[in-house]
Amino acid sequence: MKPIGLLGGTFDPVHNGHLRLAIEVFERLDLDQVRLLPAPSPRLRDAPGRDFQTRLQLLRTAIEGIEALQADDRESRHSRPTRSIETLQSLREEFPGRSLCLILGADIATRLDQWHQWQSLPDYAHLVFAHRPGSELPLSGPLYDWIGERLVDSPADLHARAGGLVYICDIPVLDIQARDIRARLAAGRSIVFLVPEKVKRMLLNE
Question: Which pTM does this prediction carry?
Fold first, then answer.
């Protein structure tokens, strides 16, 4: 069976950059689906302004009718800040032997060692670093060596095993930031074409 992609975030709010990234990786890696996993309370980021259920509903609205994308609410089952390793463990229990691909922005690679049990992440999934405008992977040091030891250059390698590899997916990604959308909303400025139309209507209570 084809791999399952995993894309986490606060999605506060979900925007076209998130969605386009998911679709680009879905097509490039020939995935079965991409699961979008909103975080209730991320450990290494500021607390979201919107509650989890509101963000989840916005996400479900955004991907309605898009079979390639699914909203996954499993991280809401934790009462404490989200840890990716636990999310991957849960998914591995649900999909034993299935190839899982954790999709991360390339900027995450420079601070991956701040994550809880980060060195164990490949025990449960492949790591797929998607290049964003202006981002780059670490060029030296332990993280560079760690990534290099697992790096492969073909998506086919990700299909052949359940996890353990690193792949760099150099794709055009829309440079849209959720914090900019929040600022625009606060200032009464337009968010047209930054988020799906249905999401815009919900955000503006239209």
Answer: 0.93
CA 114 from chain center: how many Å?
Answer: 17
Q: Report the domain count for the chain.
A: 1
Domain with 14, as residue range(s), is 4-203
The pLDDT averaged over each successive group of 10 residues in the chain (206 residues) is 96 96 97 96 78 96 97 88 90 97 86 90 96 62 86 96 94 89 97 97 90
* Sequence-distant (≥ 6) Cβ neighbours of residue 21 within 8 angstroms: 7, 103, 130, 171, 173, 174
The CATH number for 183's domain is 3.40.50.620
2 burial class (0-12, 13-18, 19+ CB within 10 angstroms)? middle
Residues 6+ apart with CB under 8 A from 12: 48, 49, 50, 55, 178, 182
